[in-house]
Every structure is written in structure tokens, then in C-alpha cells.
Amino acid sequence: QVQLVESGGGLVQAGDSLRLSCAASGRIFTSYTMHWFRQVPGKEREFVASMSSGGTAYYGDSAKGRFTISRDNAKNMAYLQMNNLKAEDTALYYCAADPGGRIYWGQGIQVTVSS
């Protein structure tokens, strides 16, 4: 069982930065692929970024050049640094862990960007 808790969301203005954090339980965090997704009401959940256990990062088109995913295996933490935020980045952001076999989701955290 993997439990995930996101933090760091909030209300910011366009052009600002935020860093989301994801605290994960589990003895073998280093083996998890960590993901960030986001969702706007009425739309499908959108892939934002992921980082493999080996540290390789992948980004969705909306995140490329502005967002950076990272992880601290010693602290069982994953992060999403978001720069130059835009109004269209407003969404509920989810952290997800993939230890293989199934994906575990956090409860989500709201990010609101005012223009």
C-alpha cells in the first residue's frame, strides 16, 4: 500500500512560481515511477510530468520548458516546480506513484492562477 500526500498548492498570479510536493509512504520508494497529473472539471485528467526510478524525466506538452519534476529518494518526496504559471494551469494537481502493477493516487491539491 502506498499513500501519497500533496502540498504546496494555492492561489497565485500569472507569471508566478509554485512548487508542489508529494510525500510518499512505502519502503521501496526508490523503485517507484512518480507522476504528476492535473484535472480541470469537465475534462480528462492530463499528464504533466513523470520521473522514473532512474531519474529520467518526461513532460507533457503543457509542462515543457516551464515545469520541472524532481525527487528526493532519501525523503520519499517528489516535487513539481512550476514557473511562469498561466491561467490555463489552473487545475487540481495529483501526485501518483507507480511501483509496478497498479498506480496509487494522492487526494489532489488545487492550483489557481489568476490572470
Structural commentary:
There is one protein chain. The radius of gyration is 13 Å and the shape is globular. Strands 2, 4, 5, 6, 9, 10 and 11 form a 7-stranded mixed β-sheet that branches. A 4-stranded antiparallel β-sheet has the order 1-3-8-7, with no helix packed on it. The chain is built from no helices and 11 strands. It is mostly beta strands and 115 residues long. Strand 5 (46-51) and strand 6 form a beta hairpin.
Quick rundown:
This protein has 115 residues and is an all-beta fold. It is built from no helices and 11 strands.
Low-confidence stretches: none
Count of discrete alpha- or pi-helical segments spanning 4 or more residues: 0
Structural class per helix/strand content?
mainly beta
Helix content: under 10%
Helix-strand string: EEEEEEEEEEE
> What is the straight-line distance between the termini?
40 Å
Per DSSP E runs of 2 or more residues, the count of β-strands stands at: 11
Sheet having the most strands: 7 strands, mixed
Cα Rg:
13 Å
Strand percent estimate: over 45%
Shape: globular
Give the integer mean of the pLDDT values: 95
